[in-house]
Structure formats: structure tokens, C-alpha cells
Fold:
Amino acid sequence: MASAANTNLNAVRETMDVLLEISRLLNTGLDMESLSICVRLCEQGINPEALSSVIKELRKASESLKVSENCTN
Structure:
């Protein structure tokens, strides 16, 4: 039983490593934690295209806040 759990855990780690490498090749800017969250959301039925749009919008909003903070300082 423990061996099967270890095999499954190793498969999950390997899959996440491959996904992270693909993410890096595509310059997504996602770290392992963010990528893992995205994968879990997709596994729960979240539309990947909608998730991508939300991430892009959050990045734009974050960048906009950074720019406005720099202008006021």
C-alpha cells in the first residue's frame, strides 16, 4: 500500500515538474505554487481560458498599481 502511494506521489511530482518546465518555456511567469493552484482549479472544473484571463487581468491591475505608486512617490 505504501509503495503504491509513493509511486503515485512520484508521478504527481514528475507531472508538476514537466508542467513547470512547459510554463517556463512559455514564459508564463508562474512559479510552482501558482502553477499548482491553477492545476487544482482546472481539476475542479474551472475553465482554463477563463482562469488565464483572470490571471492576465490581475497582472495588469497589479502593474497599474505599481506604476501609480511610483508616480506618487
